[in-house]
C-alpha cells in the first residue's frame, strides 16, 4: 500500500505546469519535487532565497548550506539562483509565484486555511505562509485528511487563520476537493476510497460533483 504522503505528493505534482515558478512549503509539500511528470521543467522557490531547488539529495550527498526554508536538505537544478530574503519575498508579495503548495492544520467551508499555530503549543512562527496565501496565483493545500481520526476539513476553522483568501485546491490521501464560492466540491477520490468514506472523514459540508473521478497518481 502506498504511503499516504506519497499519494498526496504524487497527485499535487500533476498540478505543476511547465515553465512556472512554484513555492513548496516545508514538510509534506517539499516531497512534490520528487514526483514531477517527465518533461515538466519548473523552477521551485523557497522563502529562504533559493530558486531552482530540486529533490532531496541521496544519503551522504547533503550540502549543509543548501536547504529549504524548513532546514531540509535539497539539491539545486542547473540554472538555480541564490537570492536574498528581500527579493524572495518581493517575488511572493508581488504576485510573481504561479503556485504555492502548503501544508494545513484546518481548512473550512469557505476555503480559508489555518496552518501556522496551535494555541498553547510552541511554534517557530508563521514564516512565509501569510504572504504565500495572499500572493501566489494558485494555493494548493497538501495535507492528511484527519488528525488522529479528527477531521481537518471543518465548517469553520477554530485555529488562527493564515489569511482570509480562499485556497484553490485541497489534496489529501483520500480526495481532491475544490473550494468555491458555493462551498467545497469533491472532485476526485483516491483509489479504493468511496465518496461515503470521504464524507465520513470530513466535518464540513461537501458537495459531490456529478463526475467524481478516481485520483491519478502520475
What is the terminal separation in angstroms? 16 Å
The overall strand count is 15
Binned, the helix content reads 10-25%
The number of helical elements comes to 4
Largest sheet: 10 strands, mixed
Radius of gyration: 17 Å
Q: What shape does the CA trace take?
A: globular
Q: Provide the low-confidence segments as ranges.
A: none
SSE blueprint and pairings:
Layout: H1 4-13, E1 21-24, E2 43-46, E3 50-53, E4 76-82, H2 85-93, E5 99-102, E6 106-108, E7 113-114, H3 129-135, E8 139-142, E9 146-147, E10 150-151, E11 153-154, E12 169-171, E13 175-180, E14 183-189, H4 195-200, E15 207-214
Structure description:
- This protein has 218 residues and is of the alpha/beta class.
- The chain contains four helices and 15 strands.
- It has helices at residues 4-13, 85-93, 129-135, 195-200, and strands at residues 21-24, 43-46, 50-53, 76-82, 99-102, 106-108, 113-114, 139-142, 146-147, 150-151, 153-154, 169-171, 175-180, 183-189, 207-214.
- The chain has a ten-stranded mixed β-sheet with strand order 4-3-2-1-5-8-12-13-14-15. Strands 7-6-11 form a three-stranded mixed β-sheet, with no helix packed on it.
- A hairpin with a 3-residue loop joins strand 2 (43-46) and strand 3 (50-53).
- The mean pLDDT is 93.
Amino acid at each position: 500500500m502506498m504511503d499516504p504522503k506519497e499519494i498526496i505528493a504524487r497527485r499535487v505534482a500533476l498540478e505543476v505546469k511547465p515553465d512556472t515558478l512554484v513555492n513548496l512549503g516545508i514538510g509534506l509539500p517539499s516531497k512534490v519535487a520528487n514526483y514531477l511528470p517527465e518533461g515538466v521543467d519548473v523552477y521551485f522557490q523557497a522563502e529562504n532565497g533559493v530558486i531552482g531547488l530540486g529533490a532531496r539529495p541521496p544519503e551522504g550527498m547533503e550540502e549543509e548550506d543548501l536547504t529549504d526554508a524548513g532546514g531540509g536538505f535539497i539539491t539545486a537544478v542547473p540554472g538555480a539562483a541564490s537570492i536574498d530574503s528581500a527579493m524572495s519575498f518581493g517575488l511572493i508579495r508581488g504576485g510573481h509565484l504561479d503556485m504555492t503548495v502548503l501544508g494545513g492544520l484546518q481548512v473550512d467551508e469557505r476555503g480559508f486555511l489555518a496552518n501556522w499555530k496551535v494555541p498553547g503549543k510552541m511554534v517557530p512562527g508563521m514564516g512565509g505562509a501569510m504572504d504565500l496565501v495572499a500572493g501566489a496565483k494558485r494555493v494548493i493545500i497538501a495535507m492528511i485528511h484527519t488528525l488522529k481520526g479528527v477531521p481537518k476539513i471543518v465548517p469553520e476553522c477554530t485555529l488562527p487563520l493564515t489569511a482570509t483568501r480562499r485556497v484553490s485546491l485541497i489534496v489529501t490521501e483520500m480526495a481532491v476537493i475544490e473550494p468555491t464560492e458555493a462551498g467545497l466540491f469533491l472532485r476526485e477520490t483516491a483509489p479504493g476510497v468511496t465518496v461515503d468514506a470521504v464524507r465520513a472523514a470530513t466535518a464540513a459540508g461537501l458537495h459531490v460533483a456529478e463526475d467524481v473521478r478516481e485520483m491519478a497518481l502520475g
